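ingest -> validate -> predict -> emit
validate: passed (alphabet ok, no gaps, 500 aa)
predict: started
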Amino acid sequence: MVFLRLFLVVTFVFTAFGAANSRPSFGDDEIAAAIARTGARIHRETLRKAEAGDPAAQNRMGKNYHYGRGPFRKDEATAFRWWMKSAKQGYAEGQKSVSSAYLFGNGVKEDRSKWKYWLEKAAHGGLASAQESMGDHYSPDMLLPAKDASFAKAIVWYKRAASQGKFIAQYRLGVIYHQGDAGGKKPVDAFHWFKAASDKGYGPAMLMAGQMSASGTGTIQDFASAARYYSEALNQRSSTPYYSAQASSQAAYLLGMATLKGQGVTQDFGEGARLLARAGRGGVAAAKFYLAGLYADGRNIRQDPATAIKLYEEAFAAGIKDSAYYLGTLYERGAGIPTDYGKAAKWYRKAAADRISAAQARLGYLYHAGHGVSQDVTVAATWYEQAATGGDVSAQVELGRLYFSGHGVDKNFQIAAKWLGMAADQGVPYAQGHIGSMYANGQGVPQDFKQAFKWFSLAAAANNAGSVTDRDSVAKKMTPSQVAEAQEMVAKWTRSKSQK
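emit:
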């Protein structure tokens, strides 16, 4: 009733103030005085109730002294005494206030054991915020977990708080189940709790619910629902409780990517780029990386190499290491900017240091050709080998050619066959034709006309120069049954690749 009276007084004052034509007007001083008188009455009433033993009022008195409200000067010791009176009567809010005082040393000596004692009493008393804090206490993911921390214990408390609508607890339950921190991943449970927290308006939960909807993890795949989650997180007001600017920026990135792909929303490259730019301004490095790619290629938006370079550099500085490789390609191919092999080599070297195979292969090519660096085929072979080992097929081809010719390395047909064979098996027509010749001539591998026929046939199907002639030539050295066996080998290889 006291708070209702305050509401009515303030409403009356502002109504009177706004209706100058029909009622006497009140100045700012009169309004302030009216509010002050009402506040003073509330404080007196709270003090009277607290002295009479009302635990809720005692807890409020503690907060009055803790914050220095109204006529009560800030006094942590007095605040603690009022909280303790409330706590000893079993009032859960007062017990949590006492626990906080012991945690931070407000009005009493800091004592973590007493902090936990009073917090646990408040939690057992049904106070949702205390239950959530107990979950945090037992969660190994938190900054100061208990010595006996376990996700199983954290789940017990988080569920109690979540059942009372505490959306942070709901979100943390979702994270535990999503990560599989308690006996394996449970995507259905994870989505349930992320959705519950999303329904309460918690941005980070919306992002997780959206991504799970997009991937069909723990729920039916639904791109439209995912886009709605992202949009809601993006458009939250900053005044929303627990508003997260980071979540809003991440939502702009996810919605931007969905818009570029036309997943759940109308495909719109301009709008997608605008959303990525917004996310980039919010510090989402991945948004800068993908936006840079749009500007670099000029696909469906205006090509702008200078902006692409700026965004790639910012993304690289923020930890997106692949950005260095793409900067290298921009400078190497000179798309919209002058070709600069020196800068290309600089950025490829940065990416190569992070074991990006494609960059190692391009750096090998620059040394091979002498572009932007002193020509050195031996150094080129070193880079090719690192890239080839990492799975880069172009490097496997080049390395195989070097070992076949003995250029920059000692000639070695066996090593050449190893690398060319790997590239051939990945469908590179040139490598297929070359390894076919090596089988036909027994170079680095045992002579095998069936293998030669197989690889020549595959290369010929991809229009590799000379492979039809080579296949027909080797077929003349084979029996009809050998040709039939080789043709089955071709069909078997083709089937195996089509199934992947």
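Residues 1-26 have pLDDT under 50 and may be disordered.
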